[in-house]
Every structure is written in structure tokens, then in C-alpha cells.
Amino acid sequence: MTIHAVKPSRLLCEASISRVVEMAWEDRTAFEAIEAQFGLNESAVIALMRQQMKPSSFRMWRKRMAGRRTKHAVLREALWLRHRATHSRQ
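Above: the chain sequence. Below: its structure as C-alpha cells.
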């Protein structure tokens, strides 16, 4: 019996998918923050982005994210794993 991976979009509602995409586009939000809030590791976020975006937009995003220090808490010594959008209330 083969175990098939569940698509990340099946685990989340539309609002959560939109929020994950927004956080993934944000340069300062580490993948660890997305995992802490939504339970999606880096590979699941990549799969979700691939599914939700046009191919050209996905390629542009992957090029930007490749090796970016701010997307990995370990590389940037992040103190905060929670993302706070600039438009949200304090």
C-alpha cells in the first residue's frame, strides 16, 4: 500500500492559504514562523506556492528565496518566530 502525500491546500481554508502565500512572499518571515503557525514545513510551503501561483510567478519567487538568510531562522538568528503584518493591529 502506498501512502500519498496530502496537498497542503486540502489542509487549509482559503483564508489560511492566502495568509501562507502572503507570509511566504514576505522577505522577513522565516519558514519556521509559517511552520509554527500553520504546521507547514518549507517543502510544504513550496508545494503550496507552486499550486497557488502561475509558473512564472513561482519561478520568480523561488529565485528570490534561494539562499535568502531571512527566510531561515537558523541563518538569521531570529528572535521571533511569529510574523506580524504591518497592516495588523498592535
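Residues 12-76 form one domain.
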